[in-house]
Structure formats: C-alpha cells, structure tokens
Amino acid sequence: MNKYEIAVVPGDGIGNEVIPASIKVLDVLAVTFGFQLAYKHYDYSCKNFAKVGKMMPDDGLEKLRDCDSIFLGAVGYPGVPDHISLWGLLIPIRRAFDQYINLRPVRLLKGVDSPLKNIGNVDYMIVRENSEGEYSNIGGRFNEGTENEMVKQESIFTKKGVDRVMKYAFELAQKRNNKITSATKSNGIIHTMTYWDERFKEIGTAYPNVEKNQFHIDILCAHFVQHPEWFDVVVASNLFGDILSDLGPAVVGGIGIAAGGNINPEKIFPSMFEPVHGSAPDIAGKNIANPIACFWTGAMMLAHLGELEAAKLLMDAIETLTFSRKVLTRDLGGTATTTEVTNELINIIKNNSFIKI
Ligand SMILES: NC(=O)c1ccc[n+]([C@@H]2O[C@H](COP(=O)([O-])OP(=O)(O)OC[C@H]3O[C@@H](n4cnc5c(N)ncnc54)[C@H](O)[C@@H]3O)[C@@H](O)[C@H]2O)c1
User: Probe ligand 1: pick from 19, 46, 90, 277, max atoms within 8 Å of CB?
Assistant: First the structure.
C-alpha cells in the first residue's frame, strides 16, 4: 500500500476550516483507493507570530523537508503585516524547496455561474514563475526621512529561472492542446521583459507543434475577461502570474474555488499545495467558507503524488456537487455551511452518486 506523509499547515482564519474539511475528504479517498495518508500538523501561522514573534520555529523548514507534500490553508491575521507571512513563511518554503512552478488551474465547473454573459468553455492553466522575478528582496531605502528619500526594488530574471518555467509550460501545453500564451510587458519593461520574450521564443523552437502567442499584460487582462475561452496554458512571471491567477478564477466562480500548487517538478523536495484564497478574516470562524478551492487543491496534491484515479474521482465529485447546485456555499449562490458541503461531497464519493455531465 502506498503511504504518503503530508505536512499539514492550516495557518490562519478559514485555513483552519477548509483544511480539516479537505482532510476528511482525502481520508475517504484513501480508503476507497487503498493508499495511506499520514499527517503531521504544524502550527506555522500569523496567529503564532503574534504570540512568539516568528511564523515558524528556527528549524521549521527542516521539519517539512522529508514529507511527501505540504498541504497549506492560508496565512494572514489582523494586526500582522502581510509581508511578514509572505516573507516569513510562504516564500521561504517555496524557495527552500525550489518550488519554482506555481500552477493554478482555471476551469468553469458545470453549474457554477460566471459573472460574464455568454461565457464559453473555459479551461486553462496558469504557470507562474515562483522563485524569482519581481518578488526579490534586493533593494532598499536610501536617505530615509530626508527630502532625498528614495527606494529601490530589483527584479531578478535568471536564464535558469526563466528557461525552466518556459520548459515546464511548453511540456504542459504538449500534454494538453498544444497552445501557449506568454504574458509580457516588453514595451515598457525593456530589460527583463524583452529577455522573457527572447527566452520564450528560443525555448519555443523545441516545440514546433505548439501554437505560440504573447500579449502585453494589460491587454491580456482584458482578454482574460472578454475571451477566456482562448487560453490553454498561460506562462507568466511571478508578479504577472500572481495577478492573472486571481483574475482568471474571478471569471469562473471566484476565489472560493481557486486551487493552486507550488511545485518542485523534479520531486527532489516536497511540493506545497495551497488554495489561492487567503485567510478571509471577514468570514473566519463562521463555518461558511467555501471548501471547494481546498478540495481541488487536494486533488492536485493527489495527482502530484501519483494517485491519479483518486484525483480524477475527486474532481468528478466536485463537479457533480456544483452541477446539482443543491449544496453550495454563499459565494456560489447557496446557503450551505462548510460542513454541509463537505458532507455532501463525501456522500457523492461514498454512494458513487456521480451525475453524468
Ligand atoms: N496564500 C495565502 O496564504 C494568502 C493569499 C492571499 C491572501 N492572504 C492573506 O489573507 C488575509 C486576507 O486577505 P484578502 O482579504 O486580501 O484575501 P482573501 O482571499 O482572504 O479574501 C478575499 C475575499 O474573498 C472571500 N473569500 C476568500 N476565500 C473564500 C472562501 N473559501 N469561501 C468564501 N469566500 C472566500 C473573503 O471572505 C473576502 O471577502 C491577508 O492577511 C492576506 O495577506 C494569504
């Protein structure tokens, strides 16, 4: 029997609701498909930072190193500045474990309403560079507090970093529909983004069958709204990918269903799976958070671990749930609680009551 060790970091706010809900679902799948999930829980969170001044202990990364995957809810807590959680936990994990791909699926699930009229079939993947780019800590303040005060923030684009994200995206495009779009802004950002374009072109020569497009980020945002059905694989830098992967899901049902994975493709280090949403302090503790983003994230984790059948069944169960529209949370137009949605999903899996869509 395959056994996987999962490091669980629920984090803050609704992370403490959607992660336990997802674990219940994963456990049902483990029994159904005959694999074992062993969880180790870690209280790395902003709430903890508020108490002890650290997001995680000094050996926090070491504790995670040997697990098969990390399953993270969300971090963010009123009173703790957002850069603390990002630079004190998420970025250290992503960088220590070379999770250089941030993968975010955007798909219009059956039964989910889009805020757009006349929307077609939307199903694409955002491949965001996750280890460098605009999110660097190189820079600083100079002449602080004087009339000559200045700040500087450097972007870092390395050949290795750009090429590997391009290769991953092209390989993914080949497995899907042979179509790739690059997000750029080389008209305005003339050093890093022209380099990004050059590498896209160069790496693309090895994939002659893949149809290639590139758009400047501004018009790409407009196309994400006006023509979301155009896309299949979208490759983007750290910042552009971050923005696109909130915009993409907004068009297909919102942040409550947006899943994500921070992937180390070579599997040398553990990958980390986390829904796109944050800790949602406005609804935390009310049992009304939509757990679907976290369920879908769990499906990505199962697929990465190699449990493809279980991952597929979980996605079918999620789509049966949304298609029937009987048990949905408020963000999807329903009235159900997190617990009710979780129980309904488990019923679908256990009773094999999938709707043929
Ligand atoms: N990866 C992460 O851990 C992560 C990501 C984004 C934001 N954050 C943090 O979360 C905190 C709140 O940030 P924010 O308000 O900008 O973003 P957020 O995603 O937490 O919330 C944005 C809005 O979406 C709603 N929402 C989010 N997830 C939902 C769900 N599953 N079901 C239903 N509604 C949902 C919230 O109620 C809120 O109205 C901040 O501290 C921020 O830094 C963390």
Answer: 277
